[in-house]
Amino acid sequence: MNRKFLFFIVIGLVMLVNIQAQVYRKEFNVPDINGFKTLKCDFHIHTIFSDGYVWPTVRAQEAWMEGLDAIAFTEHIEYRPFIKDVISDHNRAFEIARELGQRSDLIVIRGTEITRRKPMGHLNAIFTTDNNAIEIKDSVKALTVANQQKAFVFWNHPNDHYGKWSAVQDDFYEKGLFQGIEVVNSNTYYPDAQQWCMDKNLTMMGTSDVHDPITFDYDLSRNGHRTITLVLQKNGLRKA
To answer: What is the pLDDT of residue 223?
Structure first.
């Protein structure tokens, strides 16, 4: 066989293997329960549109390849270190990734992170309709607008650095301004948060809060995966 012809066959096979590797979806199975479909979701991710280091479509590709069913783009409203390089509004990351999500059967959700110093800390709002309308200095008003958009709001990484339960959280809770708390953020577990959820009937959340490429934080090659929230779905994710 001609050596040049053989060389091109080998190169073609290598390219084919690489193409197949790029579109491989890793499935990890979680059982469905009592007629509900169990969805694997990450409701706290960042891109270059706030303080993350990847483009929104990369986040969608990562999630699809990892076997997730849904992701929410939750860019910081108040903290955008790359704004000189990426000039856009607070909905743009979601808008960029939405089409890819539709093509790959990945649920892509609009969201945002309302970012304040402690004692309030950071809160995510997902299923928002317009993140620009939430850019309000008054914290209660910002959370009120998010709830008026019928968003699901949860308190992120409650700890000594960002703030733990205080009179501020009492006020928000009594006003019904948030409905859940991160019990696990990335690789950190907050036992106090789990107890608060149990005591106050709030939803327990687990998220990656990923900023770097996902493989920088999790060893996916050894059957690892990011921190996720399992959602029991019957009539669509928004009703789950």
So the answer is: 78
Instruction: Report the DSSP pairing between strands 180-185 and 203-207.
Output: parallel
- How many whole angstroms separate alpha carbon 144 and alpha carbon 171? 13
Tokens of 115: 């970012």
pTM comes to: 0.88
With vertex at residue 154, the alpha carbon angle to CA 148 and CA 155, rounded to the nearest 5 degrees, is: 125
Give the angle subtended at the CA of 50 by the CAs of 49 and 51, to the nearest 5°: 125
CATH homologous superfamily of domain 28-239?
Metal-dependent hydrolases (3.20.20.140)
How many C-beta atoms surround the C-beta of residue 110 within 10 A? 23
Using a pLDDT cut of 70, give the percent of the chain over it: 88
* Cβ-based neighbour number of residue 98 at 10 Å: 18
Domain regions of the chain by residue span: 28-239
Residue 236: band (very low, low, confident or very high) from pLDDT cuts 50, 70, 90: low
Q: What is the DSSP letter of 49?
A: T
CA-atom Rg of the chain in angstroms: 20
* CA nearest to 162, candidates 193, 136, 133: 193
Yes or no: say if 182 and 157 are a contact pair by the CB < 8 Å rule: yes
